[in-house]
Amino acid sequence: MTGHPSNTWQSIQEELKRRIVEREWQPGDQVPNESDLADEFGCARATVNRAMRQLAESGLLVRRRKAGTRVALNPVRHAKLEIPIIREEVESRGLEWHQAILEKGISPASDRLTRQYQLPKNCRLLHLRSVHFADRKPYVYETRWISLSAVPEVENEDFETVSANEWLVRNAPFTHGEILFSAAKMTSEEAEIMAVGAGDAAFVLERTTWIGDQAITAARMIYHPGYRKRSEL
Amino acid sequence: MTGHPSNTWQSIQEELKRRIVEREWQPGDQVPNESDLADEFGCARATVNRAMRQLAESGLLVRRRKAGTRVALNPVRHAKLEIPIIREEVESRGLEWHQAILEKGISPASDRLTRQYQLPKNCRLLHLRSVHFADRKPYVYETRWISLSAVPEVENEDFETVSANEWLVRNAPFTHGEILFSAAKMTSEEAEIMAVGAGDAAFVLERTTWIGDQAITAARMIYHPGYRKRSEL
DNA sequence: AAGTGGTCTAGACCACTCC
DNA sequence: GAGTGGTCTAGACCACTTA
C-alpha cells in the first residue's frame, strides 16, 4: 500500500512527512495512533515512536498523551546553527587564520557584573580584546572577560598560540549558555580595528557560558561587514 | 555507586554529562561501551543508547562503530533558533501586531532568478513589500517573492488580514529551506520605512523554501535596529 | 575477524490527560 | 476510567570500521 517495503524508522518518517507535506493529513488533523501505524507499516510500535517523536521535535507534529497526535497548525521551524571555534570556521573556508591580541589585563569585577553574572565577591576578571584574521584580513573582533574564580588556570595562559575562544572550548566545559544575535553600527574604534568604514553594519554574536550557577566567560564577537551565518531548515 | 537509583535515559544522560563536565572523562578519552554502561547502571542497552545518542547529537560525544565512543575534543555547540511567524513573535512579547502592504504585483521571473531558483520557464512571480508593526512601531520590513507556479492559490489572496508570512507557513509546506543571517546598513528608503535614521544597522534574515526541487518563496526580513535573536546553548 | 554502535522486535508498565 | 504517548527490557541481527 505505502510503497515502502523496508521498515526503518527513517523510511517511516519519510512516509509520514510525505503525508503531511502533500496534505494527505491536513494541518490540525488527528493522525492514527502509534499502534495503528505500527500495524499499517508492519513494524513495532517503538519504530513508529522514533519516527514520530522526531517529527514532533522538529515541529511538524504535536503530540499529547491521550489526546493523540495532530499535524501542527503553525509549524514553528527551527534553525540549527553551528557555533564552531573561529579558527575552524576560517580554515573550513580554506583561509589562513591568525589572531592579534590587543589588550589583556586583570581587574576586579564591577558591582554590576558581579550581580548580573552572580560572580563570587571580589572576583577578578581577565579582560581580553583580540582580532581574528582570515587570510590577513580582519574577520572577528572579540571582546571577552573570563572569571578567574571559575577558570583560575587562564591566569597562566598567554593565548598567543591558542586563542581564548579555542582554549575555553577545550578547557572550560559548561553546563549551559546563552547566545544573542544582533546587528550593530560599528564605532569608529571598531571600524578602525576591522579596517572598514566607520558606521558599517556588523553582525554581532554575544555569548555567555556557565557551569552550574557560576559564570565562566562572556564574549562579544563583532564580525566583518558582509559576514553571513547560514543554516538549513 | 553512581547515586542514580532510577534508570531513566534522562538520569543516565545527566550522569554521563556530569562525568564529561567534571573531567572525570577527559576530552579525547574513550568511554565504556554501551553494554558495559548498561551493566553499570543496571539497565538495558537501549536506554544507554538513547542517552548517548543524544549527547552525540549535541556534540559532546563522538561515536563510531567498532572504534567506540569518545569525549569530543572540540565540542561544536549548536544554537537552536526558533523561527516563528512574525505575528506570533510580536504577540508573545505582549505587543500588538499589524502590518501594512506597501507593494503587491505580479511580474515574470527574470533570467537570473529563473536560473538561481530553478524556476519553470516563463514563471510568474508575486512580488510583495510589507511592514510588520509591533505596537504601531515598525518591527520588520519584508521583501518577498512567491512562485505562482509553486503556489497558484496566492494569486487570489490579498494578505490583508493574514500576512504572507503566516499564510505561507500554514498553506505552503516545504521540504527544505535555507536561512541566512547577516547585518546590513539600511538604505535611506529602508530607514524611512522603518522610521529610523539612515545608515542604522539592521539584523537581516533571508529565507528561501523549496518543495522538492521547486522554489516556493524567498524573503528578506529587515528587523528594526535593536532587535536581538536569542538562543540557549 | 571481531568489536562496536545502530536498529528492530514484542511485550510490558507507567504517566498523563481527556472524557 | 480509558486511551494515548513515553519509556524500559531482553534479545536479536546488522552495518560499519578498525585491528
Task: Name the assembly state.
Answer: homodimer
Strand order of the largest sheet of chain A: 5-6-7-10-9-8
Can you tell me the residue ranges of chain A where pLDDT is under 50 for at least 5 consecutive residues?
A: 1-5
**Residues in helix, % of chain A:** 25-40%
**Mean pLDDT across all residues of chain A, rounded?**
93
Kindly name the structural category of chain A. Answer: alpha+beta
Number of strands of chain A: 11
Largest interface: A-B, 54 and 54 residues
Q: What global shape of chain A is seen?
A: elongated
Distance between the termini of chain A: 30 Å
Strand content of chain A: 35-45%
Radius of gyration computed on alpha carbons of chain A: 24 Å
- What summary fits the major beta sheet of chain A? 6 strands, antiparallel
Order of helices and strands of chain A: HEHHEEEHEHEEHEHEEE
Total helical elements of chain A: 7
Protein model, in words:
2 copies of one chain form a homodimer. In chain A, the strands form 2 sheets. Chain A has a 6-stranded antiparallel sheet with strand order 5-6-7-10-9-8. Chain A starts with 8 loop residues before the first helix and ends with a strand. Mean pLDDT of chain A is 93; it is low at 1-5. Chain A is α+β, with helices and mostly antiparallel strands and 233 residues long. Chain A is built from 7 helices and 11 strands. In chain A, 34% of the residues are buried. Chain A is elongated, with a radius of gyration of 24 Å. At the A-B interface, helix 1, strand 4, helix 6, strand 8 and strand 9 of A face helix 1, strand 4, helix 6, strand 8 and strand 9 of B. Strand 11 (228-232) of chain A pairs antiparallel with strand 8 of chain B. Chain A binds a DNA duplex (19 and 19 nucleotides) through residues 7-9, 33-35, 43-47, 49-50, 52-53, 63-69.
